[in-house]
Design goal:
The structure is a homotetramer. The first copy, chain A, is built from ten helices and six strands. By secondary structure, chain A is an alpha/beta fold. The first copy, chain A, has a six-stranded mixed sheet with strand order 2-1-3-4-5-6, with helices on one face. Chain A is globular.
Chain lengths: 215, 215, 215, 215
């Protein structure tokens, strides 16, 4: 295990700072969360991007949100083929075991994954077209979104593709039988959001016409 | 799009609270992060579990950590087969595009995913053995960890399996050529951690003997 | 160059200790900071006093804070007269080149510079009144603060003068056109702090009434 | 005082982390430092650059180093003209009041101030030549260093100018009577250092030939 290194000192210090303050103030709550298990009200699927913090945007406390984060907040279609599907596993666990009430897909501006997809689908990123590109193959999920982009300049179309990343994921979620069923019965509701990093904005998908409006 | 619902009011309220306080105080920093792009120093792979908050444990600010969260903080082995691999895509993006300096796998106590794996491998969770179980097939990644568990009572072995989730992931990370190469050259360092939710503890993997010790 | 001596051994030893630990753990991050340049989020103006460590108080990591330290954390008024102005140069570089989002003036208790100013303005330190006294002429910047001190005993008035050192500096900062402009537009925010060394306290200037309250 | 804003939450959190850990562990030492005053053994003059941390390089504890930081770690010549001279005031206070034993000028690689001076002296930065440029007028101190640069390519000469920033400052320090006197008597020693940020290197000025060698 020569490849493992000690934790950098700045993270050790920050951890001890957290333990002495935030943890110390909520000790009994943490113990209860550990003893009784988690009971999150919502699942959020967001991007790994370091500038997107669902925990700060929603003031998330321990135990509130079941959070899956991947590149470009994508959900692939239902494909029970026996392979490893990390996103589908997270969704299945949240919905069938934890029985969350809300499932939120949170997109964001300046998304590097979406940008890569845009270049790839426009024929300007051959390295992402290669079979060995994990990012390229992951962004394939968003190809149906690229196909229906309106005409326009690149900047506009790229942002539109960020909106599509939210919409395609929500569509794919509905291909999972255990989700469609619970949405039908009213036990689960789906939500689409998009965070403007520069302006701190938050826009929600309007089901009536598929557009995004400030919340 | 009948399946899309408006954002619950409690989240709308919290978002506006964040925007009026934390965002307002840091407006120019957010704009700069948007304009100049992210430059995170570390990637963290942690569990979706609502009780695990890398952002609070490490006092993470916007722009600091590239965070991937999946069930049981697992990384599958390198498999460039052209399929969707969300975790591998996230790792590839962080290491080759963002050039993070640290890659941290953060496990935790009372992990529902690990517990499911333990029951499945012990023959007590037939529903997870089914081909259509996304959670089961995802937890297959951890089977090599179960195989080498020491004898002992169930509680001890289950916690040992949580440690294995960290170790198996770190081993699998080293099967990615672009990671092994950078670890070799000293440009990337790997770290293994385990968070005790009840006690607010943090233990680090000791490369000398594979055990975990408090940081 | 007979006046140059070799570095004392205790500092050589400490440097090697740092290089073998903290630097070694973060090698690629340092290289990146060197290659891509600094992008600090905040500038701090604090005292040279050996007991005031912004880097420990704020757990500052390499690359986070642009730090100017002078006697009594003072900023002179805007005076573009062609002379050397070290503090004004530092402020200009931080704001116009590095585009920091926050500018923090950090005062502290038991400040020797402020004490000297208090004695000088009270007529009890003639040596500081001399034209050749660099400390005296530097502390002239704080004379407007002394002029508005409330009545009271010496200890109270001296601490009040430490608060004034923060307030006068913040007022002077606003006389720089490039600062006033950015504060106006919301791109830069100013903050006043005072650190109690004995108690490890931190008080922030309240803009509503000019008083200081614990953060 | 509309221009003053509350301290950003991330700094409030970090401060409380420090207070609960590092401060709490050293409470009596801090109180003693406050009661008995500081007694630093060395003064360090370094750059404001966020990547240069004398406190981490030298593992500085509270009370050890009197630290002045300005753009490019420059000291102007002795000029007792009655104007504000922040650097000269800091040096005077450290040497005559605190009686430090060591005075260290710490330069560093990739210095933005030195780079600006290089461009200015080469005729490529007219904006720095303007009378109103605080950075330009401050960097005038380094002009004698530029004048004696050896021939060579720009990168080599720019790094040589970083070395000159250390040497010019040390020369200027010797123009202060209270310094020359104490150096003469052996009560004060001067040291010149240069920190390579990318490599974590530290080079010391060799008085024999004016070159820099690894410590």
């Amino acid at each position: 295990m020569d490849h493992i290194r000690p934790l950098p000192a700045y993270l050790v210090q920050r951890y001890h700072g957290w333990r002495a303050t935030s943890f110390a103030e909520n000790r009994s709550w943490y113990r209860r969360l550990a003893d009784e298990g988690q009971r999150p009200r919502a699942m959020v699927i967001s991007c790994c991007d370091s500038r997107v913090h669902v925990t700060s945007i929603f003031g998330a406390e321990q135990g509130e949100f079941f959070i899956h984060r991947n590149i470009a907040n994508l959900v692939p279609p239902y494909e029970p083929d026996g392979d490893h599907h990390g996103t589908s596993a997270a969704v299945e666990f949240a919905v069938t075991s934890l029985k969350v009430a809300h499932l939120i897909v949170l997109g964001h501006s300046r998304c590097g994954g979406v940008q890569g997809c845009y270049h790839m689908c426009s024929g300007h990123a051959p390295e992402l077209d290669e079979k060995t590109s994990f990012v390229g193959r992951w962004m394939d999920i968003l190809r149906p979104g690229f196909a229906r982009l309106p005409e326009g300049d690149d900047a506009t179309r790229q942002q539109a593709l960020e909106f599509e990343a939210v919409k395609v994921s929500l569509e794919n979620l509905m291909t999972f039988p255990f989700i469609a069923e619970r949405v039908e019965s009213g036990d689960l509701s789906l939500h689409g959001l998009w965070n403007d990093i520069a302006e701190g904005g938050l826009m929600a998908l309007d089901p009536r016409d598929g557009s995004f409006h400030p919340v």
